[in-house]
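thoughts on my protein:
***
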Amino acid sequence: MIGMTRNANGTKGFALQPIAVLQGFIASQFFLLLISVVLAFAVYFSPWKASPKLLHVLAHAAVFAGAVWAGLRCQMKAWLHGILVGVLAFVVFSVVGYGGVPLSTWLWWRRFLKMGFVAMLGGILGGLSRGS
């Protein structure tokens, strides 16, 4: 919801800050790239193979970190900024890596909701951390 609200110092401002969402999304993609490089070296130099379950967990961890970043950067409603980072990242993941039509299966919706929940927790953690 983009609306005019009063912030902590009494001036009007937007409840949603697109720059914070964009920074969180870029941070999540950076963390995902960093995790991918480390994982690629681990797989290349050892006989170990990554499981799909581990790849899902690492993708969620990267989006969680990006949502924390967005929660740190926004002024209010960190949970909403976190969710938007998760939604944006999941849509990009779906377009890039999903073979079928997004929105068409129950599995897609379940993963979408799970990613949104993880990102919301990250945004909340980032919002709580900025006050300290």
